[in-house]
Structures are given as C-alpha cells and as structure tokens.
C-alpha cells in the first residue's frame, strides 16, 4: 500500500464495500470484465445521484459483447462514461521487476482516491506482497483525477503523472495466472466435461493471452499432446488439458491479431504449454539454493520474513517484517546460489564491507580520541553503513538458521539419497535402509522421499508393496494419498493394467530407473547441486529445434511444424536467431562447502550482468507455461538459460508452489478410476453396437 500512497493516492477502498459518494470527482475503474463487476459499476453510476461525476473504465481483459451491450443499454450511465477500454493486464508478474507504461491518456489528476477490490487488500495472504518485484507495475500517464476503482483482480497499480513515451519492458520474469486449484479443477475427480473444468481452462487461457497482448508478442504455440497406444484406447480430459489450453490461447491470440493495433501478424516468440506430469520430482525434491531453502525451511508468508531486532529503547527485541525481493541487492545476488556458497559469500562481503567503510573502521578503533575529520567521515558513512549492515545482518541470520535446520534435520543425507534416486545411483535397498535407520525423520521428509521413489520406481507401489512401504515409513493412509495420486497423475508404464485400473500417463515407453541423466558439459561446484528440472532439457531442445514429436504446434498443423523429430525444424523455428551458448563446466565429484574457481555460468552475478545488457541483442523470447504449479528450481533454470541461450526465458504457471503446498494439493485429489473404466467400456460397447447396426 505504501507504493500507492507514495504516488499521491490519499484513499484506498474496496469495490464491493459501501463507499462515500464523491459526485464532484471523476473515477477510474480498473476491473475484470465479469458480470458481477459490470453490475457493480452500473449500480455506482446509475440513477439521479451517481457515486462519481464521470467514470473512466479499464478492463483487465477483453469484455464479452453481451456485457458491452448491457452497458450501452443503460441510458443513464452511458453519458457518464469518459472511457471504456481493454487493458489486457490480467496476470501476476513475479520474480523480477516489470514496468509497463500504458499509452492510453487519462485527464489531469487532482486529489487522487483509489477504490480497490477486497482481493488486493488480502494479497499478502496468498504470498504476493505489494512490491514492484511481485506485481505488475503499471505506470499510467494520468491526466485526470478522482477515485480509481479496482474489481475482481489482485493487481497493483502505481500512478505516474510524468508524461513519458509509452514503453514495455520485461526481463527474466515469471508470471502466474492465480489458479492455485488448477490441479483439482483440471485433474481431480469428475472433471470430465464439468463447468469447473471449462471455466478454469478458459480463464487461464485468457490470462496467459493478456501477457502476449501487453507485450505485443505473437507466439508459436507448442503443447504436449496426449498419445494413445491404439485405436481402442480412450483419451481422458486430463490428458487433453495442454491441448485444450493451447487451443484456447490460440483463439485469444488470433483475436488480438485483428483487434489490437500494431499487433504482430507473424510469430515473434515461442510458447510451450506443459502440465505438471512432465516432471513430478521438481515440486518435492529438496532444492539447495538460497531462495528455495528460504521458502522450504523457513516460515515465510509469501516473501515476507519476520525476525527480531534490538529495541531502540533498550527493551525487549522487536519483531520486524522484511521482504525478500529484488529491492534487496544482497538477496538479488544470492537467491540462486547454493546455500553453502551463499554463506561463504556473505562472510566475504561482510568482511570486505567492514574493512572499507569509514564508519565501521572508526567504530572498531580503540578508545583513542577521534579527530574532527574522523567524525565527519563517520557521519557521512553512517547512513550507508546502517543500511548495509542491516541487510548483511539479516541474511547472515537467515543463512545461519538454514544451516542449523540442515544439521538438525539431517537434510544432507536425505538430499544425497534423493538425488541418487533421481540419477539411478540408489534404489530400493538404500531407501529401506534410510527408513529403518532414520526413524526421527519428519513425516514430510519421508513423504517427499516416498514420492520421489514412486516417481522413479512406480512398480514398487503395486499390490501390497505400497502397504509394506507405508508401514516401514510409519506413514498414515492419508499421507500415502499424495503418493498414490501422484502416480495416477503421472501415469504408470501401461495404459491399462491387469487389475482394471486406468492410467493417465502420456508416454508409453518403459520407465528407466533413472529420472535424470547427468548433463554433459556441466560441472558441480557444490555438493547436492546435481539435480535439474526437466524443463531445462526441453527448453534447450526447443531452442535448438530438436523437439520431440509428441509436442505439436497450434500455428501450423502440418507434420513439419509438429516438433523436430529427426532434426526437422518448423519455418518459424528457423527464423529464431540465438547466439551460441557459452561452454558450461563438466561435472566432477563435488564436496560440501569447497567452491572451485570456475564460473558457474548462472550465478546471480551473471544474471545481474545479463539484466543490464541490451535486450535487442538477445534472440526471441521463449515462454514456458506449466499447468498445475511451478517451482523455484524452475525459475532458477529460466534465469540460467536466459544467460546461456541469449534468449529471454519466461516461466509462467497457474501458481508457484512450495513442497508442502504441492503435497497437500496432490493428496486432496480424488481419482474415481472405477467410474472412468466403466464409462470407457460403456462407450466401447456402444461403438461396437453402432458398427454392428451399420
């Protein structure tokens, strides 16, 4: 809220709460184009005594024609509307600073008041703080005054009264569509042809499309298509989610081509649509970067961290809230670093700062008398000294807490087993040995290990094997729901099992007992930094034009544009100009806290250099959208590949989930497999009956 009031906004209100009439002032509405919001707007502005003198209405996405007609048919409201426009800004920007300057002029602003939807006021509850790094930053060239009314969308608006040329800039960004229940709505029980399924899919497509509308990018839309083993196999709605979402996004994009001025008519970027089944391990494995461990091991409220600081009055320590976001340069540099590397860097930076800062040097002197010149230098250095020391102290405290938890929980040994399982260096013997010897492991950590084990060895959970593992791990039936649902969501080796269950797996190939292969040309600087999300491989293949054949293209249904099996590239793919990536390190055996002298190629320092580089020198953007939630390790990969490929890699998802949240969501899914099988056989019999009649 401080960011809004700093721009001269004196009042913030909720659209759905009773508001004081301001008939002498004009109002600016920024609302979703929903029936409820339009009704509220018409109620505000209709009758003899409207709330405001005139309304300037801006919709976050395209408004349906029936709602436009409803507004036009209200003769009392129509003369009071000063503007009615679609802004195409219906998504949350996360991970990096974004600046939008919208070229729609609004008249001179006097005595500003903002009226917001309740969702904005509660934004912190869902983990998105009111700060530039985690919301869309709208810089509006305002020329008009009055209340600004928000409705139906958690968004941040920042008013900028300076008249500057409109521009759009996006760098190393992630975005979400705010669908925290996407897995439940799209992959849960009884989703076949349900209203909830269609509503979630359509809203998600609209919000994804507004990203491209805002940036004026026309994407080449690729998606992971469902594959059936034979003609008798039936494809479920769950398997078709990426296909249906790609089609819905494509419909929105094609509409923008004819409705948005200067919108590109040919492809300018690439969009890859996946679902969470492409990589079930990333959401549950322990990620060892500073950012991921903060969200995994500390009790953060979104990006808000609460810690104790000494009281200025000398009393009890006071609690202070800080945001771990891009305005903090220490966080920006360390967030993608390994926790051991981050700890060492903090120590070096603290030592270097104290040795160079005048105030720090003078404070460390003995009791000798200070000269006037010394005092002057100390006073000049104090503001910077206090600010920097606060930041260093904060991160030293956080790193210390993380390292303490790692030691107390025995996380290193668990993390090693997790990664050995993923890379095929460990199996059943090692898992059983861990469960027997580490009885004090937390339920969550044992459950995460079991989910990784099930992803690599799904056959170990068939029949009564799952019950034996559950007893050994001392997990409840409720806990095991997450494991079982993950297997169903991801699919098993065969589409139809002998016991009559129905699998949801896209790929029919037999699973290897290694979910990842060591990447050639890369070297570990730190232990437990071996794991990488699957999207890293997919994005690199996409950039090279070596995409698997099961990834189809919505723009051109011809076989040559449905991926790059056998090295085939689409026409649009060949137009992409990306520089050759710099060489990465070859992997060696690593140690826990001993850095090597090589450049990691994707450290925060490298990202900062990339961020300051000229974007025009980079190739076309790559957008990757994951249905069902993305992870912080996947955000890290996008930063890394932006530097490596010299192309902005933008990660989008329905939400950003930490492991506990993802496990809870998966555990709550209910799969009525028996009903699906009954429907399948009924339709198969019906088909045979029709054939017989013919």
UniProtKB/TrEMBL annotation:
<comment type="similarity">
    <text>Belongs to the STXBP/unc-18/SEC1 family.</text>
</comment>
<feature type="region of interest" description="Disordered">
    <location>
        <begin position="499"/>
        <end position="519"/>
    </location>
</feature>
<keyword id="KW-0812">Transmembrane</keyword>
<feature type="transmembrane region" description="Helical">
    <location>
        <begin position="661"/>
        <end position="686"/>
    </location>
</feature>
<dbReference type="InterPro" id="IPR027482">
    <property type="entry name" value="Sec1-like_dom2"/>
</dbReference>
<feature type="compositionally biased region" description="Polar residues">
    <location>
        <begin position="567"/>
        <end position="581"/>
    </location>
</feature>
<dbReference type="Pfam" id="PF00995">
    <property type="entry name" value="Sec1"/>
</dbReference>
<keyword id="KW-1133">Transmembrane helix</keyword>
<protein>
    <recommendedName>
        <fullName>SNARE-interacting protein KEULE</fullName>
    </recommendedName>
</protein>
<keyword id="KW-0472">Membrane</keyword>
<dbReference type="InterPro" id="IPR043127">
    <property type="entry name" value="Sec-1-like_dom3a"/>
</dbReference>
<feature type="region of interest" description="Disordered">
    <location>
        <begin position="557"/>
        <end position="605"/>
    </location>
</feature>
<dbReference type="InterPro" id="IPR036045">
    <property type="entry name" value="Sec1-like_sf"/>
</dbReference>
<dbReference type="InterPro" id="IPR001619">
    <property type="entry name" value="Sec1-like"/>
</dbReference>
<dbReference type="InterPro" id="IPR043154">
    <property type="entry name" value="Sec-1-like_dom1"/>
</dbReference>
């Amino acid at each position: 809220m401080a960011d809004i009031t700093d721009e001269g906004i004196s009042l913030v209100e909720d659209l759905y709460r009773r508001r004081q009439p301001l008939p002498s002032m004009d109002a600016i509405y920024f609302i979703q184009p929903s029936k409820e919001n339009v009704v509220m707007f018409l109620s505000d502005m209709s009758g003899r005594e409207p709330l405001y003198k005139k309304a300037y209405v801006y919709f976050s996405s395209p408004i349906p024609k029936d709602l436009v007609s409803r507004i036009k048919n209200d003769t009392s409201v129509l003369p009071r509307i000063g503007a009615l426009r679609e802004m195409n800004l219906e998504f949350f920007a996360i991970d990096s600073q974004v600046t939008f300057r919208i070229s729609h002029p609004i008249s001179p602003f006097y005595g500003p008041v903002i009226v917001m939807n309740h969702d904005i006021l509660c934004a912190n509850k869902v983990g998105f703080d009111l700060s530039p790094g985690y919301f869309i930053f709208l810089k509006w060239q305002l020329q008009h005054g009055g209340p600004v009314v928000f409705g139906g969308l958690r968004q941040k608006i920042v008013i900028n009264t300076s008249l500057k040329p409109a521009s759009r800039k996006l760098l190393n960004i992630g975005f979400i569509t705010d669908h925290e229940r996407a897995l439940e709505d799209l992959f849960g029980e009884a989703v076949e042809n349900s209203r909830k399924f269609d509503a979630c899919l359509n809203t998600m497509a609209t919000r994804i499309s507004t990203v491209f509308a805002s940036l004026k990018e026309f994407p080449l839309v690729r998606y992971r298509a469902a594959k059936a083993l034979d003609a008798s196999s039936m494809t479920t709605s769950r398997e078709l989610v990426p296909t249906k979402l790609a089609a819905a996004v494509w419909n929105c994009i094609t509409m923008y081509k004819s409705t948005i001025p200067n919108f590109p008519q040919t492809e300018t970027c690439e969009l890859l649509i996946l679902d969470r089944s492409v990589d079930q391990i990333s959401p549950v494995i322990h990620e060892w970067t500073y950012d991921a461990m903060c969200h995994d091991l500390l009790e953060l409220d979104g990006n808000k961290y609460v810690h104790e600081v000494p009281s200025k009055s000398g009393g009890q320590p006071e609690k202070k809230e800080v945001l771990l976001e891009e305005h903090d340069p220490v966080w920006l540099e360390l967030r993608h670093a390994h926790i051991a590397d981050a700890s060492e860097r903090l120590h070096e930076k603290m030592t270097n700062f104290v040795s160079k800062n005048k105030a720090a040097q003078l404070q460390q002197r003995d009791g000798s008398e200070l000269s006037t010149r010394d005092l002057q230098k100390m006073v000049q250095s104090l503001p910077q000294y206090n600010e920097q020391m606060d930041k260093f102290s904060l991160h030293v405290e956080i790193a210390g807490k993380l390292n303490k938890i790692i030691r107390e929980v025995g996380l290193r040994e668990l993390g090693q087993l997790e990664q050995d399982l993923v890379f095929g260096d460990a199996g059943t013997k090692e898992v059983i040995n861990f469960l027997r010897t580490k009885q004090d492991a937390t339920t969550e950590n044992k459950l995460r290990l079991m989910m990784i084990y099930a992803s690599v060895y799904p056959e170990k959970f068939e029949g009564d094997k799952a019950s034996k593992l559950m007893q050994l791990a001392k997990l409840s039936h409720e806990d095991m729901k997450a494991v079982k649902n993950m297997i169903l969501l991801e699919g098993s080796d065969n589409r139809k099992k002998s016991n009559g269950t129905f699998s949801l797996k896209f790929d029919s190939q037999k699973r290897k007992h290694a979910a990842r292969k060591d990447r050639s040309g890369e070297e570990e600087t730190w232990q437990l930094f071996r794991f990488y999300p699957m999207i890293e491989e997919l994005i690199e293949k996409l950039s090279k034009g070596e995409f698997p054949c099961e990834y189809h293209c919505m723009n051109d249904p011809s076989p040559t544009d449905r991926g790059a099996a056998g090295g085939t590239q689409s026409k649009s793919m060949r137009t992409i100009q990306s520089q050759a990536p710099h060489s990465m390190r070859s992997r060696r055996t690593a140690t826990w806290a001993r850095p090597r002298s090589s450049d990691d190629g994707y450290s925060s320092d490298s990202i900062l250099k990339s961020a300051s580089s000229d974007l025009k020198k980079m190739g076309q953007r790559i957008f990757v959208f994951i249905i069902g939630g993305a992870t912080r390790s996947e955000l890290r990969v996008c930063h890394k590949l932006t530097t490596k490929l010299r192309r902005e890699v933008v990660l989008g998802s329905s939400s950003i989930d930490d492991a506990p949240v993802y496990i809870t969501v998966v555990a709550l899914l209910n799969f009525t497999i028996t009903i699906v099988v009954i429907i399948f056989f009924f339709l198969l019999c019906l088909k045979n009956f029709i054939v017989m009649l013919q």
